[in-house]
């Protein structure tokens, strides 16, 4: 189990980040202490903050009195809510925050379910609690709990995963909630230069998006509708208008994002980084299956489009490290669908089993800067991190930008 500890000054920001997920139905509150939460499963963020403030001393001797902790079990550990609660309460107690007001949230918006804990880092006198060795103590406690509860050992160096959202699963129901948990972050994080690439991206998460055109009161209308699909791409259930999920995933907003994405792909040099990873994988692949596997280990997914005769006519790469979503032709003629098809039509005796085996043992990611990579943003923290919660990382970055602006003022 990996713990990520962050100190901050914004109590409302930490509560709002988690509370909004609860109210959207992609998180739940498991435990609280000295803080009231309604029994209907919702989260009154303002009321919760008032309860916290009742325990906040008037004189605080630190600039960062709020502590925000995420607990991340190994992906192979499938824990019940009861098990999560036991682990969270024991961790809080051993870290010295057992008597503090706190809220334990369980996030379910990605496959890797994990916990978030918000509490106060200062006691009633305003002094910081456990100041000094928190990160070392946390690592020791998580190791002890792994052994005690038979959990898989998790370490940032061993498990370095690219950002991937959770696929929509029609059989689980709550289709609107599942769609929202993918569409909103996908539209914000991934750089899709066109509707075609955006559509391809969503298809990997069992979502189909279609344009709707017509007239309303004599004026032309452009809109979008979203469908859930099964693993074979077959539509499931009724469509959802984009307005159900907010303007950020509507037609106009996405058109602006497509335009911005084209600029970012050039300005931030995201496409060349993706191209480097694709070329490295291709040079070690004798078959499409090898290519797909080698790319996946680099945090890149590939979608092949074929006609009825089985001829490859389109290829799209999704780089989960930097959010780059591009058709092969955008990366160059040598990575277009025709060039890739010709590569696999030729024999490659130079790609021996030993070479391919060495690639499978190499888990290195495509090199990206800390600024551009979601993973990179987590690595500058003095703690272990396992996997990436996109919204969590974006929240952290917003808080950093806010602090920088305040300093300038």
TrEMBL record:
Q: Where is the composition biased (Basic residues)?
A: 397-409
Stretches assigned to the MobA/VirD2-like nuclease domain: 43-151
* Superkingdom, taxonomy of origin: Bacteria
Could you tell me which residues belong to the region Disordered?
350-378, 390-409
InterPro entries xref list: Endonuclease_MobA/VirD2
Cross-referenced Pfam families: Relaxase (PF03432)
Identify the stretch annotated as signal peptide in this record: none
The name under which this protein is listed is Mobilization protein
Q: What is the lineage of its organism?
A: Bacteria, Pseudomonadati, Bacteroidota, Bacteroidia, Bacteroidales
């Amino acid at each position: 189990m990996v713990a990520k500890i962050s100190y901050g000054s914004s109590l409302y920001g930490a509560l709002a980040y988690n509370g909004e997920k609860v109210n959207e139905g992609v998180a739940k509150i498991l435990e609280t202490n000295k803080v009231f939460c309604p029994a209907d499963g919702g989260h009154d963020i303002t009321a919760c903050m008032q309860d916290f403030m009742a325990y906040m001393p008037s004189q605080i001797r630190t600039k960062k009195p709020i502590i925000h902790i995420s607990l991340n079990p190994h992906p192979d550990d499938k824990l019940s809510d009861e098990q999560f609660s036991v682990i969270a309460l024991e961790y809080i107690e051993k870290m010295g925050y057992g008597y503090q007001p706190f809220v334990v949230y369980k996030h379910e918006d990605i496959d890797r379910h994990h916990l978030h804990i918000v509490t106060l880092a200062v006691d009633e006198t305003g002094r910081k609690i456990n100041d000094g060795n928190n990160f070392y103590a946390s690592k020791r406690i998580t190791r002890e709990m792994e052994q005690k509860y038979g959990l898989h050992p998790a370490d940032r160096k061993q498990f370095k995963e690219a950002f991937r959202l959770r696929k929509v699963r029609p059989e689980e129901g709550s289709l609107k909630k599942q769609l929202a948990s993918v569409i909103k972050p996908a539209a914000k994080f991934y750089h899709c230069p066109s509707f075609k690439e955006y559509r391809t991206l969503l298809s990997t998460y069992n979502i189909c998006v279609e344009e709707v055109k017509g007239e309303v009161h004599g004026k032309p209308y452009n809109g979008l509708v979203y469908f859930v699909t099964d693993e074979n791409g077959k539509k499931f259930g009724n469509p959802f208008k984009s307005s159900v999920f907010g303007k950020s995933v509507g037609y106009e907003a996405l058109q602006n994002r497509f335009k911005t994405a084209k600029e970012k792909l050039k300005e931030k040099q995201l496409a060349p980084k993706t191209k480097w990873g694709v070329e490295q994988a291709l040079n070690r692949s004798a078959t499409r299956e090898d290519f797909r596997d080698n790319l996946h280990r680099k945090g890149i997914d590939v979608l092949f489009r074929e006609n009825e005769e089985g001829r490859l006519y389109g290829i799209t790469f999704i780089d989960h490290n930097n959010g780059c979503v591009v058709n092969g032709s955008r990366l160059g003629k040598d990575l277009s669908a025709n060039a890739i098809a010709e590569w696999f039509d030729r024999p490659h005796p130079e790609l021996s089993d030993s070479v391919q085996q060495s690639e499978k043992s190499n888990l290195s990611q495509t090199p990206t800067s800390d600024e551009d990579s979601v993973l990179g943003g987590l690595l500058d923290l003095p703690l272990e991190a396992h996997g990436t919660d996109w919204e969590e990382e974006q929240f952290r970055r917003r808080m950093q930008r806010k602090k920088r602006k305040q300093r300038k003022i």
